Amino acid sequence: MRLITSFRPFVLSILLCAAPVGVFADQPMSPNLNMAIDLALQNMSVGDVVRVDLDLDGQEEALLLLTEACEGEACPWRLLGADPFGDGYGIVAAGFGSRTGLVETYPEGHVIQSDGVLLAWDGTQLLPHHGLLAMSTDRSADAGEARLLNRLLSSSYRALQIRAHEVDPFGSGAIWPLYVIQPDGSAPDAAGEFYLLTPEGEIRHRGSSLGRPWLYQDNSPDGVILRLVSLTRDGILVESLYER
């Protein structure tokens, strides 16, 4: 499970984190970014430091790529920035990946890319950015799709409760349906369930997310990997799915 705090079966899960500076015990806050970086270099094994103004708000952030607590080629990373409440500079987000760096997104600034997942910092929190669903149609399920899903789940969802997407997650030309169940309003801020089906109509993955999930296509020596990203109250959950 990979949790990005701000917020590896067949499905590999990791929790990434993005949270207020104070929740990270591995480094207290500092008066400015330079001092925060210096403190991190004293307390952590840092392989690289990349400074950039991620959201073009006039304040730089620093992405730290660590060389400790690694698992194989995957290592932790930390994002240093200004505390949204004005209490100084420190760690505002943390994650874990084998390939982490920055990607420019004109004209918004830069985003963090970690194993194919794009993460945008808006000055207060780290959130998924773009992804496969940004390029897919978002519509209500039709009656046939609702019947199929209800049969698979032994449920009774109405078609209007189901948002339908069609994606080609592995770049093979095969279309995989993704169905997102809309919360019924009985529980404020409840997470919604989602189901990824194979082209043959079988459930391949199920999950839940605060808002819709995010999908990213990534490449590895073993082939294409689908990264499924869910928003939780503890952070950003990243689950990895192989085609076979």
Annotation, overall tally of beta strands:
18
Give the count of structural domains.
2
Number of helices: 2
Tell me the helix content: under 10%
What is the terminal-to-terminal distance? 20 Å
Unreliable residue runs: 5-11, 19-23
Order of helices and strands: EEHEEEEEEEEEHEEEEEEE
Average pLDDT works out at: 88
Q: What is Rg?
A: 19 Å
Summing up helix and strand content along with how strands pair, one would put the structural category as mainly beta
Rough shape? elongated
Describe this structure in words.
Mean pLDDT is 88; it is low at 5-11 and 19-23. With 244 residues, the chain is mostly beta strands. Helix content is 9%, strand content 46%. The protein folds into two domains: 2-130, no CATH class; 134-225, no CATH class. Strand 9 and strand 10 (126-128) form a beta hairpin. It has helices spanning 33-43, 143-153; strands at residues 2-5, 11-18, 46-52, 61-66, 75-82, 89-97, 100-105, 109-114, 117-121, 126-128, 139-140, 162-167, 176-181, 192-197, 203-209, 214-220, 223-231, 236-242.
Key phrases:
244 residues; nine-stranded mixed β-sheet; five-stranded antiparallel β-sheet; 46% strand; elongated
Write a concise synopsis of the structure shown.
The protein has 244 residues and is mostly beta strands. The protein has helices at residues 33-43, 143-153, and strands at 2-5, 11-18, 46-52, 61-66, 75-82, 89-97, 100-105, 109-114, 117-121, 126-128, 139-140, 162-167, 176-181, 192-197, 203-209, 214-220, 223-231, 236-242.
